[in-house]
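Q: Structure tokens for this one, please.
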Amino acid sequence: MKRCNLKSKINITLDEPFLDAAIALIKNPLGLQYYPIPEGFELKEATVAKRKKPTQQIVTTCYAFAFPKLWQFRAAHLQGDSSLQLLNFVLFRHLNFDLPFFGADLVTLPGGHLIALDMQPLFGGDADYQAKYTGPIEQIFQTHQPHLPWGGDFPEEAKQFFSSAFLWDRPKETEVVETRVFAAFKDYLAADFDLVDRPEPVTSRTKLDNI
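A: Here is the predicted structure, written as tokens:
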């Protein structure tokens, strides 16, 4: 379960606390295992030169873990300067569970930030499924949504893949990311792990085929 020490390579970024919080949370008694990453993809570095702009160093890292009920926990982290950062988390389930999967994106660009946070349903149009798995996080959504309002301009065809508790915002202020987004991220991730710890495997052949 190794992790590259980037703090000696590049300044600590806005995304770093999110990554630290997630890795700290997954070090719990769920049977954590290291998930192999193809050689060469754990750490990549590049120097990028843009016209009329200073050269900057880009560092990309990947982390992956596995659990008895989770096929893969993956984090991909891109660090450039203060206006170019990206963090992507995905928790994939084993296919004998009907659990939603956790997805989080935090993107920092020159014009501001983009955040997307959800426990994405396998069957978005199924009301019973939504009640079972989205219902438990609705209160968390209601707590954070007033501070992280809908960011707009979201493709209509993509909405079917998200729950009614989907947080999508475009905060301009870095302080909002450091406080409000960080709090929502930790609450959603903790709720997701709580769900993972409870369900029993699906045994119905029809349901397994649907999954």
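A few notes: The helical segments are 16-26, 127-133, 135-144, 174-196, 205-210. The beta strands are 33-34, 43-48, 56-66, 70-79, 85-93, 101-109, 112-120, 167-169.
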